[in-house]
Amino acid sequence: MQFLDELNWRGLLHQTTGGDELQQHLASGSRIAYCGFDPTKDALTIGNYMPIKMLRHWQLAGHTPIVLMGGGTGLIGDPSGKDAERQLLSKEQVAKNIEGQLRCFSKVLDFEGDHAAVIVNNADWLCELGFLDVLRDVGKYFSVNTMIQKDSVKDRLHNREQGISYTEFSYMILQAYDFLHLRREMDCTIQIAGSDQYGNIVAGIDLIRRDMIDAGDDQFKGAGITNPLVTAGDGSKIGKTEKGAIWLTEDRTSPYAFHQYWLNIPDEDAGKFLRWFTFLDQPTIQAIEKEHAEAPHQRAAQRALADAMTEIFHGNENVARCNEAAKALFGGDITSLDEKMLGEVFSEVPAGEFPKASLGSEQALLVEVLPQTELCKSKREAREFLKNGSVAINGEKISGDDAVNRVLQTEDLLHGNTILLRRGKKAWFASRWL
Fold first, then answer.
1. Which end of the chain is more exposed for a tag (fewer CB within 10 A), N or C?
2. How many CB atoms are located within 10 Å of the residue 217 CB?
3. Can you give the residue range of the structural domain that contains 358?
């Protein structure tokens, strides 16, 4: 009950099966639940984070979580949410993707002590099954009439250009067998997933019931718990930006970019996201929302959200570095940023390379350099911007006649290779001197 109550106040409880029987089952002792992860990529995005968080709430409620890596099902591909056939991955690519994804789980789940999380790979049992054995012992329990009513199948059947292969059509059977296998071998009675997997969960529970038909009516067979598909207030998918996905690993999305994503969440989503994504408790979130309502311009909710999420995946040290960088960028001293953070902060701004040997010469006159950047179009425009004080070097404004004659020097280099130029408040250019 503690688990369901936690999900409920956070707005993360969408569907359950089992009704009162499920509540009695959870209240009567420590249980085991699993959630499956599809190894289509070698890293996970914040859109994949929610099921991991669901498992952590399960663990915090005194139960044991199983992370199921789809080494077997990943060779087939889940048709859910797809309007075309997936490109089949090789066994080697699937194995590589699993290895890459494993980095993310230890950031959220506890793999030691009481109720330690467990990782399993369904390739260990699915790849051992014989085709005829599956047809006889598993397939006989599945009604094609029911399977074609599933949205992911029905939509594809009605699209004559795309259709659906028997391979993807069979995915439901494999996922159902996962639940049966874990019920038999590990006494796993609960499957946790997003709401788009509800049909697959029900299929697994039905298979378990048929397999355990002689186990007695009083023995709990299994149940499913789903979270709503998390979207922003405008209906867009979480973790998708104009420039791509927001990843959980530093090699794909830098700590600074990760922190900035949450910092720029709209006001209407901030409170909801604090509940969905962070582990902050209810009184803390309510206090943050009250502070935010009293002074929205200070963005207390977004700052708390950005700090909490960055701490989970990148640690407290990077939270401090990201906040220092943001402060430096908007009015502070950017020369204080270390080389790595400087690169992260300005990774998305226009950049260009210049000969380092020209520093201190007429070639490095700002009026000569600026037209070679995206900050102005001509020398005439460069002189105008310099005279009216619109240009800054490494965040420090220059102006007047001296600005027109300003030559970039070796002393202007940050970390020996970069001079940051800015026009106005937001137009930056990173000049690299090599």
1. C
2. 6
3. 351-433
The pTM of the full predicted model, rounded to 2 decimals, is: 0.88
Rounded CA gap, 258 and 428, in Å? 20
Q: Which of 172, 158, 163, 181 is nearest to 77 (CA)?
A: 172
Q: For residue 230, what is the DSSP state? A: P
Local confidence band at 162 (pLDDT 50, 70, 90 cut-offs): low
- C-alpha angle 75/107/299, rounded to 5°? 115
Q: How many domains does the chain contain in total?
A: 3
* Predicted pLDDT at 66: 98
Please list, residue by residue across 146-170, b when 16 or more beta carbons sit within 10 angstroms of its beta carbon and e when fewer do.
ebeebebbeebeeeeeeebeeebbb
Mean pLDDT of 100-111: 96
Q: Are residues 264 and 182 in the same domain?
A: no
C-alpha count within 13 angstroms, C-beta hemisphere, residue 202: 11
pLDDT in tens, 338-396: 999 999 999 989 999 999 999 999 999 999 999 999 999 999 999 999 999 999 999 99
Domain contains 401: yes
Give how far the C-alpha of residue 376 lies from the chain's centroid of Cα atoms, to the nearest Å.
37
Per-residue pLDDT at 81 exceeds 70: no
219 against 129, higher pLDDT: 129
Q: Are 386 and 406 in contact (CB under 8 A)?
A: yes
Same domain, 163 and 287: no
Count CA atoms within 13 Å of residue 346 on its CB side: 29
